[in-house]
Write a structure and sequence with these properties.
- The structure is a homodimer.
- Chain A is α+β, with helices and mostly antiparallel strands and about 325 residues long.
- Chain A is built from 12 helices and 13 strands.
- Chain A has 3 domains: about 1-60 and about 310-335, Hypothetical Oxidoreductase Yiak, Chain: A, domain 1; about 70-175 and about 225-270, Malate/L-lactate/L-sulpholactate dehydrogenase, NADPH binding domain (Ribosomal Protein S8, Chain: A, domain 1, 2-Layer Sandwich), CATH 3.30.1370; about 180-220, Wheat Germ Agglutinin (Isolectin 2), domain 1 (2-Layer Sandwich).
- In chain A, strand 10 and strand 11 form a beta hairpin.
- In chain A, helix 1 runs antiparallel to helix 2, helix 4 packs parallel to helix 5 (about 120-130) and helix 6 (about 180-190) crosses helix 7 (about 210-215).
């Protein structure tokens, strides 16, 4: 593991994107956000995934020169075709448009079809927070999770973010609908560890914390079992139907690596009905009370949602972003 | 267990409400929805909870003659004070208002503070579906769930519903943030059964499926562990801050039975950008594909979210609603 300063990481990703005929502003956006994902500790969706993005560009799945085009608009809701453009650029455009609409209407919804992986859901939550708005965003994915009681994957792990701005640190969740990602299970397997909670099913159909069993069965458990399965289906319906795009079922029929996903962006300009000083006092009080919880073990830190990412960002800004040396060499060798 | 026809159940609840100086239309609404909750199989939030509602009315926690009053309005977002009125009446009003606003703006948000238990989250999802709209609604609760790594309850199990209309059966989830309710654990304990998934923590702080252990520790596990804990906090922030009401922290400070909760209602008039025939074809295809999943055991039925409630409604309309005889006698004795 080596440590790369944020700006150096960003510059290296930017160099490769420019070599793929990315415009300067798009290369800037994508390199900034992918380096930031690693900076905030979401390593799986930052620098570690960059080579896959470049491969997807080279395969033609991601089209660096595409822009979203409007399909329909009505009041505060709009849907767009992402034209298979860069996932981060498309998603930032959509959230930007949602923020604009919410300035007039108080709330807005932008649905986006035929787009690509947005990398980290929280990115668009933070984007809204920086504009003083709350947000809810979701994306669907390729089929990668069986529904409750089934063995074959016909749901997506459809990430969901909810974000609420706060001067002392935004409160934000970013959660996939599986309890653990395959990446997390593979890391535990390498380290010879069991998962802390049930990760999926073993070959006999029993819930199991053994990453080896779950990776073999291809049956990761939805977060909250039947609850996460149901939520996954609803998020998929919201994103896929409102964008007139693909639901998970449709994404599964497309050949090649995951592409053509559907996303949803809701921005809430809540300060127009709940003045910032009053609403923030309510939130600060609740955060303080939560942080005063009695920990299970002495010395264990209780955190609010978003606190770990903020702390990680501070540390990685100071020390540099930890990157696997092979991954870094692979990126440097991309020409 | 006896079986009571839907109309007879509704009439009996209505009689009691009228004896508590409820207006005829409010008595009609509350008796209809509580009987319907039992009809749809949500027994814990239907007839079984009616005596508690009457007690709350008698204690003055629920004020049968109160109406919501507007606090602020901006475009498609509004917040109201529920003035401690009947939870179902207030929530139906709020969703009705959200539907009205979404007709103009495409999407809307109504936040409601100082209201009472809405009984079943799905009620307001169905209300939107009947108007051809999708919905997201949430309520906060008294503190009843510790956050991840903590032992004392400082989060609520804040129910969440997402609903999407469909001619062949609305697709809808209604989920509390705990994996199991205390009611479900008590029922399993009586039946001498273990829970199917981890229900909470035992006295040693380990995840456990034993309802006895979890009831004793008062540490139910959030759905998806840390994920449900985070989601609970965000839903609480949305409902409490946008309504300028109480977050879970504040509800915990009010004396007496749970009251003065905060709720949020979002309606999406998505058909204005995603015509019904096109969006419904996308959803029907995904539902059909999901239902064709390979079940874990031969003969096991795979369902879409909302299917069980619809099936239960059909059965209970035919056979009558199953009600515990003592509960029914208690209601009949209320004068």
């Amino acid at each position: 593991m080596i440590r790369i300063p944020f700006e150096a990481a960003k510059d290296e990703l930017r160099r490769v994107l420019l070599s793929r005929d990315c415009s300067a502003d798009k290369a800037d956006t994508v390199s900034h956000e992918m380096a930031r994902n690693s900076l905030d500790g979401t390593y799986s969706h930052g620098i570690n995934r960059f080579s896959r993005l470049v491969r997807n560009i080279d395969e033609g799945i991601v089209q660096v020169d595409a822009h979203p085009s409007l399909i329909h608009a009505f009041g505060a809701i709009e849907n767009y075709d992402g034209n298979l453009g860069l996932g981060i650029v498309n998603a930032q455009f959509a959230m930007g448009r949602a923020i604009e609409l919410a300035r007039t209407h108080g709330i807005s919804l932008v649905a986006l079809r035929n787009t690509n992986h947005w990398l980290r859901a929280a990115t668009y939550g933070y984007q809204a927070c920086e504009a003083g708005m709350a947000a809810l965003c979701t994306s669907n994915t390729m089929p990668n999770m069986p529904t409750w009681g089934a063995v074959d994957a016909r749901l997506g792990n459809n990430p969901l973010t909810l974000a609420f701005p706060r001067a002392k640190g935004h409160v934000i969740v970013d959660l996939a609908m599986t309890q653990y990602s395959y990446g997390a299970m593979e890391a535990a397997l390498l380290a010879g560890k069991q998962m802390q909670a049930d990760a999926g099913f073993d070959r006999h159909g029993a819930l199991s914390r053994d990453p080896k069993e779950v990776i073999a069965s291809r049956r990761p458990v939805p977060m909250g079992c039947w609850k996460g399965a149901g939520l996954s289906m609803l998020l998929d319906a919201f994103a896929g139907c409102m964008s007139l795009g693909s639901m998970v079922a449709g994404i599964g029929r497309l050949p090649g690596d995951e592409h053509g996903v559907s996303q949803l962006f809701i921005a809430v300009n809540y300060r127009m009905i709940a003045p910032a000083d009053q609403s923030e006092a309510i939130l600060d009080d609740a955060v303080d009370w939560l942080l005063a919880s009695q920990p299970q073990e002495e010395g264990r830190q209780i955190v609010y949602p978003g606190q770990r990412a903020a702390a990680c960002q501070g540390e990685n800004l100071r020390l540099g972003i930890p990157v696997d040396e092979r991954i870094w060499q692979e990126i440097k060798s991309l020409a």
